[in-house]
Design goal:
- This protein has 506 residues and is mostly helical.
- Helix content is 45%, strand content 8%.
- Helix 14 crosses helix 15.
- The longest helix has 19 residues.
- The radius of gyration is 32 Å and the shape is elongated.
- The N and C termini lie far apart (91 Å).
């Protein structure tokens, strides 16, 4: 019978590949957040490590909450994060369709099988009666549950109600004596759902399934071998195993992932808007940094280690190392994670070219309406900026902040301002101009630091720290920032000379 029911799945009749098949099943009710990303990532790592398939299935059976465009946004986010699915609504595959709203015929046929076997029944209870049951339970300080009234209807009574055109749903008949199952994370588990719950609705009046039916049916038809999902579904797994038993199907292996919480133990707040991948991408964070921090704060690895690449995550991930306690996420550490990965991008020739293009666009957007020399957009100069600031910036957009404005527009500094720092401003300027105009000038930070020390010795009374303060102001218009030697190397001899000439003559 299991083979016959599987045949209802059309394209899903083909057997799985040599590796495991896992799925990520988000509801298209909004944007992908960090909790969803972690669930998707665990599935992706599990599949990649074992040469299996990672499936994206859109669970859009809640028509009231589904948002237009959300499904595409979720797949876009996975692709941005570098964990694109092997099969999905966009990519297709042999086990489609990959939207539950396009698989309604499967759920109806599955319900018919359960009805024929007596494992499910039609329920005609009105919303008003169900609401009264709930109010009565709450009044008695009890957990609301359906009283299974329609479970006991005779075939004749059911036929009579159907002939009257009454609305109905399908409920699954829960049975006592569930068998324990071994969860990949939580170990042996069992929940006697029939003792604490009423029979659950599995098919609504509009023909759409509930989560319980849809996931069991789809995981079977799609040949899903391992279900890795949030721990909130752990207590429902016994119910799902009863469904598998009623169908005569072999269940997949289950692994439930602990919650991802703020570092103070509070839930990640979606209302704050700062837990969505789209927000992090807009702020300039690298996907590798997000993947790194959400795996570093939890478990699944032998040790905590900042800076793991996706390839390292794949090779080092061990599902047996996932612990049952919640993972505490410290987002205040994200800039540091991003700094580490941004440094790696800058050091990589291929990745650096992408950063150059992005920084050029940022500079044009931020400083394009100012008196900006177009030479600052040249590839060689932008690349020099990146290499010099490697390891010092957390986000690429830091380089277009006010602190680094001097890299893109010339500061407005007067001779009078320089003289407030040292009365020898003119002499210091001439000494530096002479240094920069030497044909044999070697602009390395090490050599420049030595040369600037020697220049200071040629002044009458200006201390080295004051001379650095003066030169930093002349070159950048700021009192703080990178070393003067670094500024000079980055700007180049011609620009350094131009800025000093300009400051001394204004």
């Amino acid at each position: 019978m299991a083979r016959a029911v599987r045949a209802l799945g059309g394209g899903g009749a083909a057997g799985p590949g040599p590796g495991p098949r896992v799925r990520f099943g988000p509801s298209p009710t909004g944007r992908l957040h960090l909790g969803g990303l972690r669930t998707a990532l665990c599935n992706f790592l599990f599949a990649r490590q074992r040469r299996g398939a990672f499936v994206l299935r859109i669970e859009d059976t809640d028509r009231l909450r589904a948002l237009r465009g959300a499904a595409d946004g979720i797949e876009d986010a996975l692709e941005w994060a570098g964990i694109a699915p092997d099969e999905s609504p966009r990519r297709g595959g042999a086990f489609g369709p990959y939207r539950q709203s396009q698989r309604l015929h499967l759920y109806k046929q599955a319900c018919d099988v359960l009805l024929d076997r007596g494992a499910a029944y039609r329920c005609f209870c009105t919303p008003q009666r169900l609401q009264l049951l709930k109010k009565e339970a709450l009044r008695n300080q009890q957990t609301p549950r359906y009283d299974n009234r329609c479970r006991h209807l005779t075939p004749k009574e059911v036929a009579e109600k159907l002939s009257q055109g009454l609305d109905w749903v399908v409920r699954f008949r829960l049975e006592r004596g569930v068998e324990p199952f071994q969860d990949l994370v939580y170990g042996w588990n069992k929940h006697e759902v029939a003792e604490v719950e009423g029979d659950p609705v599995i098919l609504k009046g509009d023909g759409f399934p509930t989560y319980h039916l849809a996931n069991v049916v789809d995981d079977h038809y799609m040949a899903i071998s391992h279900v890795l999902r949030g721990t909130e579904w752990l207590t429902s797994t016994s119910k799902h195993l009863l469904l598998y038993k009623a169908f005569g199907w072999d269940p997949p292996q289950f692994g439930h992932l602990p919650l991802l919480l703020n570092k103070d133990g509070a839930k990640l707040s979606k209302r704050q808007g700062d837990v969505f991948l789209e927000s992090f991408a807009q702020d300039g964070y690298l996907p590798e940094a997000l993947l790194d921090i959400i795996t570093n704060c939890g478990s699944g690895f032998a040790e905590k280690q900042m800076g793991r690449t996706l390839e390292e995550l794949i090779s080092q991930f061990e599902i047996g190392r996932i612990t049952t306690h919640s993972a505490l996420l410290d987002l205040e550490m994200l800039p540091e994670f991003n700094r580490v990965h941004l440094t790696r991008h800058i050091e990589n020739e291929e990745l650096r070219q992408k950063l150059i293009r992005e920084l050029q666009s940022l500079v044009e957007r931020v400083y394009g309406d100012q008196q900006m020399d177009k030479e600052v957009l040249e590839k060689e100069y932008v690349e020099q900026v990146l290499l010099m600031r490697k390891g010092h910036i957390s986000l690429l957009k830091d380089l277009v902040s006010c602190d680094y404005a001097y890299l893109w527009v010339r500061p407005s500094v007067s001779r009078e301002q320089l003289q407030t720092i040292s009365a020898e401003a003119d002499d210091i300027g001439k000494l530096v101009l002479g240094l920069m105009e030497r044909p044999t000038a070697v602009l390395t930070m090490e050599e420049l630091n030595k040369d600037l020390r020697n220049l200071q010795k040629q002044t009458r009374e200006t201390k080295y720290s004051s001379m650095m303060k003066l030169l930093r102001l002349a070159l950048s218009g700021q009192q703080n920032g990178p070393s003067v030697a670094e500024m000079m190397v980055t700007l180049g001899p011609r620009e350094v000379c131009g800025r000093i000439h300009k400051a001394l003559s204004s």
